[in-house]
Specification:
The complex is a heterodimer of chains A (about 625) and B (about 230). Chain A has helices at about 1-25, 180-215, 220-235, 250-275, 280-300, 305-335, 340-360, 375-460, 470-490, 490-495, 500-515, 535-555, 585-590, 595-605; strands spanning about 40-50, 65, 70, 80-90, 100-105, 110, 110-115, 120-125, 140-145, 155-160, 170, 175, 520-525, 560-570, 570-580, 610-615, 620-630. With about 625 residues, chain A is α+β, with helices and mostly antiparallel strands. In chain A, the strands form four sheets. Chain A has a six-stranded antiparallel sheet, with no helix packed on it. A five-stranded mixed sheet of chain A has the order 13-14-15-17-16. In chain A, helix 1 (about 1-25) runs antiparallel to helix 2 (about 180-215) and helix 1 runs antiparallel to helix 8 (about 375-460). The longest helix of chain A is centred in the middle third of the chain and has 85 residues, at about 375-460. In chain B, the strands form three sheets. A five-stranded parallel sheet of chain B has the order 2-1-3-6-7, sandwiched between helices. In chain B, strands 4-5 form a two-stranded antiparallel ribbon. Chain B has a two-stranded antiparallel sheet with strand order 8-9. In chain B, helix 4 (about 90-100) links the parallel strand 6 and strand 7 (about 105-110). In chain B, helix 1 crosses helix 5, helix 6 (about 130-140) packs antiparallel against helix 7 (about 170-180) and helix 8 packs across helix 9 (about 195-225). Chain B is globular, with a radius of gyration of 18 Å. The chains are: A alpha+beta (about 625), B alpha/beta (about 230). The interface of A and B includes residues 483, 502, 506 and 551 of A.
């Protein structure tokens, strides 16, 4: 995109250079002339042709005129054929009879035919409507020496067919040595043809660039209007280059369209200049639209007799509008401090000057001023090139700066986020630690604390001195409780084991070795899967019950056979520990150390809304602990 | 019957615990002259010839350092002798570290005398005690041997190759241990002798120590010591 735009801008710049080069070099050509013959024009006469035989040379009523001649000043409202006769003398010095002479006709408005001494020199293609258009085409005609009478005046006859609307008549002519006339012809071609070609090419190029910009970015309305203006400008200025009136019906309708194009061009250009300033004048714009519409419709509605002044009026009004607007807009531009608007202002002021000059030359108030209007396109090419380049670099800079800002902002946001997350993380860790510590304190208080209190009561209220064995079992209970609390807080124990087998595996491993050593047969049956996930309190309590029960078996039972069952029920977890030992009775329970652990366990199971059943007789002791999944509070 | 391997080195700083261990060992059948009690690492360094030791019971929390240092030295000089860790706390990391340093088992101080006696006796019988949580740890840590050649590590002599992946059989045995089965039960379950099962377990322990050594070597390389 950027590269394409650059290429276009370079093309425009190249065209501008070509134009400048041509402008500078045109005057240096054909400066020399070796005037051996010096033809002189004696007189110019004009006459309207006979209405009934327009093709025959009229014989009477010749009137003397000066060139360039616009016959409407003499015969208003005359549309038709006019004959011109130019009497001239070759004035060749003796011995230079062979010198080639040539004739330059700057314009024939519109179509014409040329004779020298009854010899036909030139004829346009169409001498009837739709006419050929020779009004802006310089003609270079060689004067054959055998047709020139060296001593008497030589009449040159022009038969011009013209339309009243387009300033009909005959333009300047000059005669002389071929070399000299060629130089003049080239200069005339530059002013009347080449400059307009360049103008059209530039206008079309700029229009294309602008329309592409508008097509890709619809909010760039100014460029859209400029493109439209270019189209109508080209429509108007093509008038200078077209050599045939066809496909228009006749010269009058050609002129009507031409003026209409010009009017629309002025409108489009005005709106472009406002939009470029980012301004809208809704009421003025509506008025301008209405005015343009009225003017254009009037072109076709007015009777043909009033057409000529009307078209002239429209042209003048449009030019006035353009000039007023140029003044207004450049005033607005110079009030701002933007370089591109200043450029627009300068361009418009220069255009104003150029158009004023061309308007003056249009009304022939200033003579011999070369047509300068076509150079406006050069100005606009420069203006638009600079403006587009500025826009481009400005937007690129903005994008780059935006990227930088964005990166900076991202880094800032990242840092902030990292800081916040880190802070939050620290906070979470602290909270977590605090919570864990609190949990541990609670656990110690509820578990070990209550066990300690119970132990103290037991010792304090004992009726006799407790046996070592009894004291020891109290202490070992406390120790085991402590172990459990610690295990509960170690990492591996916080998670529920995958299945009941893994849950009871440490217990099994520990006791199976002891039983093995003591030659006690152990039967171990554990249901393989959880039905519902038990709570951790449930697991811990039942684990402790099993530990106590198995310890009792080792210490007191003298059993030879132990069976351990873990039943995973729908609503509860159940442990059964059955041994074939000597058993104990309730009286013994109190006295031996057995009671200390089991009573404590019963209390814990009951807190879980479970039951602990102990059945004991010699040969079979059965301990059954059951805890429901959701303990009632 | 029990083979009373002697002399026994006991490193334990607490005098009550020393007394307790003495009674347990005497109860097992040792004579006082077989038992050498030490109270600190420094004392061991000064007085003990590692080559004479046949069985060691080592406390981890010693006044002048961690007992793991002693276990490492001992297992380097006499890799074949049983080393039991006496631990006050059963934190898994501490026990696993001790096993990786070369210990063959551990006993918890807090257990009843009868349990300690059983543990020591099982070591004397040539058994290889192993806990479910250790089995699970090893299963997580050492990958199962696949068909492709296992990662082989040369030991320090450079002669023996230890495959550090678990064999199918070792994997199976560890799984059973993790379910809580005793070594005898495992032997019955997979129709091997108890001795074979315990050989496997010892092999697993060696691999654990090897992984530890590999880790140590690679760490030493990273630090530029090798």
């Amino acid at each position: 995109m950027r590269a394409a735009l650059n290429t276009l801008l370079m093309l425009i710049a190249a065209l501008v250079l070509v134009l400048l080069f041509g402008f500078l070099t045109k005057n240096t050509q054909a400066q020399f002339h070796n005037q051996t013959c010096s033809p002189s024009i004696n007189a110019v006469y004009a006459v309207q042709s006979d209405i009934h035989s327009p093709k025959l040379l009229a014989q009477a009523d010749w009137q003397r005129v000066t060139l360039p001649d616009n016959w409407t000043s003499r015969w208003p409202n005359y549309t038709g054929v006019v004959w011109y006769r130019i009497d001239w003398q070759a004035n060749c010095p003796a011995g230079h009879q062979e010198a080639p002479l040539a004739l330059l006709v700057n314009s024939m408005n519109m179509a014409g035919k040329v004779w020298l001494n009854n010899q036909l020199l030139w004829s346009d293609t169409n001498l009837d409507e739709p006419l050929s258009r020779s009004w802006n085409s310089p003609r270079f005609l060689t004067l054959p020496s055998q047709s020139i009478n060296e001593t008497t005046p030589n009449p040159l006859y022009f038969r011009i067919t013209g339309d009243v609307l387009s300033s009909p008549g005959l333009g300047n002519i000059s005669m002389g040595e071929t070399q000299y006339i060629i130089g003049q012809f080239q200069e005339a071609t530059w002013h009347q043809r080449t400059i307009f070609y360049l103008n059209i090419i530039l206008s079309l190029t700029l229009g294309m660039v602008c329309s592409c910009i508008w097509l890709f970015r619809r909010q760039e309305v100014a460029y859209g209007w400029y493109a439209l203006a270019s189209v109508f400008w080209v429509g108007f200025i093509a008038n200078t280059l077209v050599t045939e009136t066809a496909p228009f019906r006749d010269t009058a309708s050609f002129t009507q369209f031409n003026i209409a194009f010009f009017t629309i061009y002025i409108l489009c250009f005005c709106i472009f200049s406002w939009r470029f300033l980012n301004k809208k004048f809704p009421r003025t714009e509506k008025a301008c639209f209405a005015l343009t519409a009225i003017l254009i419709t009037s072109i076709w509605l007015v009777p043909s007799t009033y057409l000529q002044p009307l078209l002239l009026g429209i042209f003048v009004v449009s030019m006035l509008l353009f000039n007023l607007n140029s003044l207004f807009v450049s005033f607005l531009c110079f009030r701002t401090k933007q370089l591109e608007l200043w450029l627009l202002g300068i361009t418009l002021i220069t255009c104003l000057a150029l158009s004023a000059i061309s308007l003056l030359s249009f009304f022939q108030l200033l003579d011999n001023i070369t047509i300068v209007l076509p150079y406006t396109s050069l100005l606009f090419a420069i203006f638009l090139s600079i403006t587009l380049a500025m826009h481009l670099s400005k937007s690129l800079r903005r994008i780059e700066r935006f990227n930088e800002e964005l990166n900076q902002k991202i880094i800032e946001a990242e840092q902030k986020l990292a800081f916040t997350l880190n802070y939050r993380h620290q906070l979470t860790i602290k909270n977590h630690q605090l919570k864990e510590r609190l949990n541990l304190a609670h656990e110690l208080h509820d578990g070990l604390g209550s066990a300690l209190v119970r132990a103290m009561i037991e010792v304090g209220h004992a009726k006799e001195t407790l046996s070592n064995k009894h004291t020891l079992s109290i202490l070992s209970l406390l120790r085991n409780d402590l172990r459990q609390i610690i295990d509960n807080f170690s990492e591996s124990q916080t998670k529920l084991p995958d299945n009941p087998i893994y849950w009871l595996a440490p217990l099994r491993n520990r006791f199976v070795q002891i039983f093995d050593d003591m030659d006690i047969e152990l039967q171990w049956e554990v249901d393989p899967v959880w039905i519902k996930p038990p709570s951790s309190l449930q697991c811990l309590t039942l684990y402790r019950v099993a530990e106590e029960a198995l310890t009792n078996v080792i210490k007191h039972s003298h059993a030879r056979k132990v069976s351990f069952h873990c039943v995973v029920g729908e609503d509860y977890l159940e442990l059964q520990i059955i041994d074939n030992g000597i058993g104990f009775n309730t009286v013994d329970i109190d006295r031996s150390g057995i009671s200390v652990g089991m009573r404590s366990m019963r209390a814990r199971i009951e807190r879980l809304a479970g039951v602990l059943e102990i059945q004991s007789k010699p040969g079979e002791t059965k301990i059954m602990a059951r805890a429901p999944y959701r303990p009632a509070k | 019957m029990i083979n009373l391997i002697a002399p026994v080195l006991i490193v334990e700083d607490d005098s009550f615990m020393q007394q307790r261990l003495r009674l347990i060992l005497l109860d097992i059948g040792y004579a006082d002259k077989d038992l050498h009690f030490m109270g600190s690492i420094a004392e061991v360094e000064r007085l003990v010839d590692y080559k004479q030791v046949a069985l060691a019971l080592i406390d981890l929390g010693l006044p002048d350092g961690n007992g793991i240092v002693l276990i490492e030295k001992l297992s380097q000089i006499r890799a074949e002798i049983p080393v039991l860790v006496i631990s006050a706390w059963s934190t898994e990391n501490m026990i696993i570290n001790a096993l990786q340093a070369g210990a063959t088992g551990y006993i918890l101080k807090e257990r009843d005398d009868i349990e300690l006696k059983v543990s020591i006796r099982s070591v004397l019988k040539g058994g290889a005690p192993i806990d479910p949580f250790i089995a699970r740890h090893i299963l997580n840590k050492i990958p199962l041997q696949t068909d492709t050649p296992a990662e082989a590590v040369t030991d320090k002599a450079g002669q023996e190759l230890h495959a550090v992946n678990l064999t199918q059989r070792e994997h199976q045995i560890l799984n059973l241990v993790a379910s809580g089965l005793s070594n005898q039960e495992i032997a019955n379950h997979i129709f091997l002798s108890r001795h074979t099962v315990e050989t496997h377990i010892r092999s697993v322990y060696r691999k654990l120590a090897v992984t530890n050594r590999t880790k140590a070597i690679s760490r030493a390389r990273e630090m530029g010591l090798l």
